[in-house]
Specification:
The protein is mainly alpha-helical. It is built from 5 helices and no strands. It has one domain (20-132). The longest helix is centred in the middle third of the chain and has 24 residues, at 55-78.
Length: 139
């Protein structure tokens, strides 16, 4: 399965016979989530030394590095096979990552106002909302 959202129309009119099927709501939903980077983030947070006096700073560095990685990674995976980058997918995945990280706690859980249930509600809302976003055909 390609990580690029399929819009149902070819970007090159010469390849009309091999047009992939258009992704439905669930297909788009799954592809807007930068799962590979979320997985990397989870692994890095788990590997961070909790006894280090700079643990909070370490968590923020891990979050920042992964947040910066998302647009680069999504640009690469949406522009394979000579296709133009799918900017809507890149932007939404870049916005989705901080929401996922927020829902998992990480450095955000150090804020006195942080509540896990609120973060989970935000994650559910944003995930469903993003799934409704549909790239233009042929993009």
């Amino acid at each position: 399965m390609s990580r690029r959202i399929e819009t149902g129309e070819p970007t090159d009119t010469r390849s009309a016979a091999t047009t992939p099927a258009k992704d439905d709501f669930l297909g788009r939903l799954a592809k807007y989530i930068p799962a590979e980077v979320v997985g990397l983030y989870v692994a890095m947070v788990a590997a961070a030394p909790t006894t280090n006096p700079h643990y909070s700073t370490i968590l923020w560095v891990i979050f920042s590095l992964n947040a910066a990685l998302v647009p680069l990674y999504m640009w690469i995976v949406t522009s394979r096979e000579g296709k133009k980058p799918l900017w809507l997918q890149i932007v939404l995945a870049s916005l989705a990552f901080p929401v996922w990280a927020f829902a998992m706690g990480g450095p955000f859980s150090q804020f006195s106002w942080y509540q896990g249930w609120m973060a989970s509600m935000l994650l559910m809302f944003v995930t469903v909302l993003f799934g409704l976003a549909e790239p233009k055909a042929g993009s």
